[in-house]
Amino acid sequence: MEHSLPAVLVEAFAAAPLQGNGAAVVLLEQPAEAGWMQGLAGSLRQSETAFLHRCDAGGWRLRWFTPTCEVPLCGHATLAATLALAHWGVLLPGQSLAFASRSGALDVAIPETSAGATAERCASLVLPSSGLEPLPVPAGLSGLLGGEVEAYWCSPLGYRVALISPATDLAGLPNPAPQLAEPERQGLVVMQAGGPGAEAWDYQLRFFAPGLGIDEDPVTGSAHALVAPWWMQQLGRHRVRGWQVSARRGGMLCESAGPARVRLTGVGQLLWDGRLNGWAAGCDPSGWDQAVYR
To answer: Tell me, which fold does domain 4-126+269-292 have in CATH?
Structure first.
């Protein structure tokens, strides 16, 4: 029998089935070569594929790959990895753990309310929030985004952030990814205050990252972790609700979890559960060297 690896596809931060941001999660028995993981992520064609590996001390290490590159942080694939461990019976309702990652230790949990073997579960994760540094609005950006850019920031995460007028139709904005130039190509968050709809979202956004191989990401946990503290400050609250108005919409509850830390809570939908042929998975322990994890 050929060797195979457990794998699932979870639609993270999904408002309903077949929405949210899909992430494949692969459970490894040992460290795998980065080239093999990158190739598999390219074959699976999700915005991110997460690879989990149990370390000698009993903890878990986590890496994320887009179809074209490895990324240092991914919120929705971390939510998917958490729900995958719950699906596999490793993480039970009421339990928590910390993933070792290239962005440090990431605390995740399955709330008590997620008990039951259902296709839909809730999970929370704590992500770093690197802060926003104001910059002048680039020339031509307002025209590209279809409305006035009221403020513009850069961030240590590498994302640029643009605040647009509430009067701008963010959901109807044609995808600007083909026209984006550096540095916006590595990640541009376009956000505005939320409307008075039934969901009562405090803010909404879209995220474009053609430089990472993702013209538009459906629901982006790292982007919400980055901008939620700004909205908390503007609204004078410790928690806000963020919504992403992509074609595969979704949202999350964002709460302050201490200095430069944000807790995101959202739902994931299990789309498929199976096994991958892993015969070609090479082992390169140096690629998972503990020195790169904090």
So the answer is: Diaminopimelate Epimerase; Chain A, domain 1 (3.10.310)
Beta pairing class for 160-164 and 188-193: parallel
Fold agreement between 4-126+269-292 and 133-259: yes
Give the residue with greater pLDDT, 200 vs 108: 108
Residue with tokens 């149990």: 54
Catalytic residue among 2, 29, 48, 70: 48
Q: 203-237: per-residue pLDDT in tens?
A: 999 999 999 889 999 999 999 999 999 999 999 99
Collapse the DSSP code of 186 into the 3-class scheme (helix H, G, I; strand E, B; otherwise coil) and give the result.
helix
Domain regions of the chain by residue span:
4-126+269-292, 133-259
Share of the chain above pLDDT 70, in %: 89
Paired residues of 193 in beta bridges: 203
Q: What does pLDDT average to over the chain?
A: 90
DSSP secondary structure of 208-245: EEGGGTEEEESS-HHHHHHHHHHHHHHHT-SEEEEEE-
Active site includes 70?
no
Is residue 23 over pLDDT 90? yes
pTM: 0.89
Res. 55 pLDDT band, cuts 50 70 90:
confident
Q: What CATH superfamily classification does 133-259 receive? A: Diaminopimelate Epimerase; Chain A, domain 1 (3.10.310.10)
Cβ atoms < 10 Å from Cβ of 156: 11
- Residue pair 152/160 in contact (Cβ under 8 Å)? The answer is yes
